[in-house]
Amino acid sequence: MKIFITGLPLEVGEDELTAVFGDFGQVKSLRIIKDRDTGQSRGFGFVEMPVEEEAKEAILRMNGGDYNGNRIKVAEAQEKPNTGTGAGNNNFRRNNRTEKSY
């Protein structure tokens, strides 16, 4: 099960967060999302736990809790629907539009 976490302190690292979720069971993967320009945490991330019961227990016990002074939200990650109108498609069309002169 993939878990979404928000409200993370900016200084928390992936190893530390892996250890915290590891208290509930096996952590298959963990990723803190970072700003591509600065490399600093954006305050949210994803954890994947292969055993659904362990993941649900982590969500139940951690959601709304205090983590290093921040109130965090922990929930099952929802897949983003693919509508075919993503930024990549729009940017491509917008950047390659031909202008007509009258």
Total number of domains: 1
Query: What's the CATH topology name?
Result: Alpha-Beta Plaits
Query: For the CA atoms, what is the radius of gyration?
Result: 18 Å
Write down how many β-strands occur, each being a DSSP E stretch of 2 or more residues. 6
Rough outline? globular
- Extract low-pLDDT stretches: 89-102
**SSE succession:** EHEEHEEEH
The termini sit apart by 57 Å
Task: Write out the strand line-up for the largest beta sheet, numbering strands in chain order.
Answer: 2-3-1-6
Give the C-level CATH assignment: Alpha Beta
Largest sheet: 4 strands, antiparallel
Compute the number of helices.
3
Topology:
Layout: E1 2-6, H1 14-22, E2 29-34, E3 41-48, H2 52-62, E4 66-67, E5 70-71, E6 73-76, H3 87-95
Antiparallel strand pairs: 1-3, 1-6, 2-3, 4-5
Quick overview:
The chain has 102 residues and is of the alpha+beta class.
Any overview of this molecule?
The chain is an alpha+beta fold and 102 residues long. The chain has a single domain, classed as Alpha-Beta Plaits (2-Layer Sandwich). It is built from three helices and six strands. It has a four-stranded antiparallel beta sheet with strand order 2-3-1-6, covered by helices on one side. It has a two-stranded antiparallel sheet with strand order 4-5. The longest helix has 11 residues, at 52-62.
Question: What structural keywords apply?
Answer:
4-stranded antiparallel beta sheet, disordered C terminus, alpha+beta, Alpha-Beta Plaits, 3 helices, 102 residues
